[in-house]
Design a protein that fits this description.
The protein is of the alpha/beta class. It is built from 10 helices and 13 strands. The N terminus is likely disordered.
């Protein structure tokens, strides 16, 4: 395994060092647990930072981020979303946001949804939301850090960070630069996805950040005619992963075309996804 360290916007490559050899040498903390936390915007105060991750794309990670933010906001918490998926941002679309971000003497002002959720996304800074972001990793990582240091978040109880998929530059930057309190990992039932999810879970453990729960999206489909559950992607493996990593909170969400329609219309704040309540309850334990 090639070990990569992110320090001061530069990547240092330690070649030909296997992870088990790093651990044997007692150098684990040197590579993975350095305290590189950046200071939050001086005019802001955030109680809890929750990262939402996935091993690969296309499993509904941004949807889960949005739904959890909506549910926590509905309970009465002050909530924000930091869209760290710089090259594939989809959070603004789910909330129907199109207005551009602007700044003041306190920092960049987040967009606000109909119910008061604060959101920062690069798509709210582009001239055209379909413009591609063709940036190298270091610039992307630095942008994510600036969403923490330069944005006037104000007073938040929970900031959800919608991470890009995988275990690359941005996840490493977020885990080292932001005081992440816990991680929620999203997957779908396929065996290949389950294998990739383990990589994401393993990374969380390397960074000594607790995993608050696993979400299996598209777990099943309920036939509107007969009411039976159909497992379109085959047998689930999420319980095996949860048991292997001692994760007690697991949620399974069905495939629901109605939700897709609502999200595409930018009306995600009208949805209540009760299947996520176990994770909502876990989040409230952080208070």
């Amino acid at each position: 395994m090639l070990v990569i360290q992110f320090v001061n916007q530069h990547f240092y490559y330690i070649s030909c060092i296997m992870l088990d050899e790093v651990i044997k040498m007692g150098e684990y903390d040197k590579y993975f647990n350095k305290d590189l936390h950046k200071d939050l915007n001086k005019n802001s105060h955030i109680k809890h930072v929750i990262a939402v991750t996935s091993g690969k794309g296309g499993v509904g990670k941004s949807l889960m981020t949005s739904l959890l933010a909506v549910m926590m906001n509905r309970i009465g918490y002050n909530v924000g979303i930091l869209d760290a998926d710089i090259t594939g941002p989809s959070i603004p679309q789910a909330f129907g946001l199109t207005e551009k971000l602007y700044g003041c003497d306190k920092g960049i002002i987040p967009a606000e949804t109909r119910t008061g959720i604060k959101i920062v996304s690069l798509n709210l800074m582009l001239d055209n939301p379909t413009d591609p972001v063709v940036w190298r990793g270091s610039l992307i990582s630095n942008t994510v850090t600036q969403f923490w240091t330069d944005v006037y978040w104000g007073e938040l109880d929970y900031l959800f960070v919608d991470m890009p998929p995988g275990t690359g530059d941005v996840p490493l930057t977020v885990f080292q630069s932001l005081p992440v309190d816990g991680i929620i990992t999203v997957s779908s039932p396929q065996e290949l996805v389950s294998m990739v999810v383990e990589k994401s879970v393993n990374m969380a453990q390397m960074m000594n950040i607790p995993i608050l729960g696993l979400v299996e999206n598209m777990s099943y489909y309920i036939c509107p005619d007969c009411g039976h559950k159909h497992y379109l992607f085959g047998e689930s493996h999420i319980d095996e992963i949860a048991k292997k990593f001692n994760i007690s909170t697991v949620c399974r969400l069905p495939m629901d075309p109605a939700i897709t329609k609502v999200v595409d219309a930018g009306l995600i704040e009208t949805i209540t996804q009760m299947e996520l309540m176990p994770i909502v309850n876990e989040l409230m334990k952080e208070e």
